[in-house]
Q: What sequence folds into this?
């Protein structure tokens, strides 16, 4: 009995090894692409978990998953079929798993290096004050194309602070309208707007008046996705920096609106 069981185990192991040596069939998502999808799925699941109030129904969670698949041009059926195949070909599955972990670690390191290079920290002259979801998917089915924020003055605000709104975009061929504004107690408002398109890192900066502290800072992005694709934005940041004489002259790009009872400069 022992010999029979041993022979059976050896036969199973050889069968698994033989199957693992075969090529990935054409109907299966290739390992590199599968790793990219799994990494994006992991990030999407983290976004959902950290923003449960925004994804409070199964349909909204499913929409997030569909957005990831749409960004990769893959259907749910293709993904499920591929998972089944990889589940029966363990060596390939481990290859995909290792690549997924490597991708996630690389993205984490990339973010850490970028933050260090820009001298962004929680304590100090620079801080990321963005508190909403850092990753969003926008398509024709989304309830809104707008990304917005609004901040009210607190004890950490100083005269001349600048606010840089930045994010990384994918599938962003159409110009998106950006705007950031600051309101002051005397009724003055400063505004900067821009139409921004293209993939990769994009940003807009507002520099506040060095002689006064604003009461509110707020902004919007009107994103415009293509009809057949999903516009992805991740690593959303709103970086507050202290007054910097080297860039303060860039305020000429901003529009200053004064109430009628304040003389124009």
A:
């Amino acid at each position: 009995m022992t010999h029979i069981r041993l022979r059976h185990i050896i036969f199973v192991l050889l069968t698994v090894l033989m199957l693992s040596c075969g090529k990935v069939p054409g109907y299966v998502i290739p390992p590199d692409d599968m790793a990219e999808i799994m990494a994006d799925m992991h990030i999407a699941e983290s976004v959902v978990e950290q923003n449960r109030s925004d994804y409070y129904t199964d349909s909204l969670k499913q929409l997030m998953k569909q957005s990831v698949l749409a960004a990769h041009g893959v259907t749910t059926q293709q993904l499920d079929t591929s998972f089944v195949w990889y589940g029966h070909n363990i060596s390939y599955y481990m290859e995909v798993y290792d690549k997924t972990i490597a991708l996630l670690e690389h993205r984490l390191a990339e973010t850490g290096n970028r933050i260090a290079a820009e001298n962004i920290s929680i304590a100090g002259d620079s801080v990321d004050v963005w508190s909403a979801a850092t990753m969003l998917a926008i398509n024709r089915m989304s309830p809104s194309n707008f990304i917005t924020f609004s901040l009210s003055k607190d004890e950490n605000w100083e005269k001349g602070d600048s606010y840089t709104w930045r994010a990384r975009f994918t599938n962003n061929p159409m110009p998106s309208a950006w705007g950031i504004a600051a309101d002051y107690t005397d009724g003055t408002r400063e505004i900067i707007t821009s139409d921004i398109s293209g993939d990769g890192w994009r940003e807009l900066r507002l520099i506040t008046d060095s002689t006064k502290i604003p009461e509110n800072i707020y902004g919007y992005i009107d994103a415009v996705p293509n009809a057949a694709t999903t516009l992805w934005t991740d690593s959303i940041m709103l970086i507050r920096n202290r007054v910097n004489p080297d860039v303060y002259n860039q305020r000429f790009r901003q529009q200053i609106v004064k109430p009628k009872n304040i003389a124009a400069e």
Notes: The chain has two domains: 2-117, 126-257. The helical segments are 2-20, 31-50, 58-72, 76-87, 90-117, 245-248.
